[in-house]
Amino acid sequence: xxxxxxxxxxxxxxxxxxxxxxxxxxxxxxxxxxxxxxxxxxxxxxxxxxxxxxxxxxxxxxxxxxxxxxxxxxxxxxxxxxxxxxxxxxxxxxxxxxxxxxxxxxxxxxxxxxxxxxxxxxxxxxxxxxxxxxxxxxxxxxxxxxxxxxxxxxxxxxxxxxxxxxxxxxxxxxxxxxxxxxxxxxxxxxxxxxxxxxxxxxxxxxxxxxxxxxxxxxxxxxxxxxxxxxxxxxxxxxxxxxxxxxxxxxxxxxxxx
Length: 257
Description:
It is a single chain. The longest helix has about 55 residues. Helices cover about 40% and strands about 25% of the residues. The strands form 2 sheets. Strands 1, 2, 3, 4, 5 and 6 form a 6-stranded antiparallel beta sheet that branches. It has a 5-stranded antiparallel beta sheet with strand order 8-7-11-10-9. The chain is built from 8 helices and 11 strands. By secondary structure, the chain is of the alpha+beta class.
C-alpha cells in the first residue's frame, strides 16, 4: 500500500494506468486492492477497469474511520460484507492526500479470512491452548471458530472490559453453555480495535498444575536427599580432623602429666 500510494499516476489522476499498476503489484493470495475517493470506489482489482462500483456508504460504518485516517494515516477495519466480492472480510486502508494536504484518495487492501488464517498459522500455541480473534463489534475474524461458537453465548462486551488498551482482570474463569470451565485471557491489538482471546479448559490447567506440583515435590525430595548426603559428607570431612586433634591433645596431656 505504501509503495502504490506514491505512484505518479495518482498524482496526475491517471486512474487507468494506476489500475494496471495495481494488477501488476505482487501481493499474497487473499488480498485485493481497492482505490476510492471520499464517496465511492474508483478501482477494484477484482473487476475490469471502468466497471460500476459501489458507494462507500453501502458498507458497514466503521467507528472513527475518516478521523483515524486524518490523524494516523491508516485504518484497520472490523469484519465488513463486500457487495463486489460478496464475502465478509477485513481491510487495511491508508490515506493519500492531495497537493492541498486534504484527503484525496483511499487505498485499501482487502484481507479475506483465509489470508488472516494463513498469516496467523505461523503462531504456534502451547499444547491445549486455543485462540480466536474478534473485531470491535465482537464479530469472529479468524482462528478457532469452534472455540468461539462454544463461548459465544457469553457477553463479550463485558469480558472485553472498559477503556482502550486495558482490562480489569488479566485472566477470567468462564463457563460455556454446556458448563465446561475455561481460563481465558485477552488482549487488544495496537493497530486495530481487535481483541485476541486465548483459552485453556480448566481441567487441562488443573492437569498441568498437578504435573507441576508433582515435579516440585519430586524435585524437593531429590534436593532433600542431596542435602542429607552433602551434610553427611561435610560432617565426615570435619569430624575426622577434629577427632585426630582431640587424640593429639589427649596424648600431649598424658605426656605432660
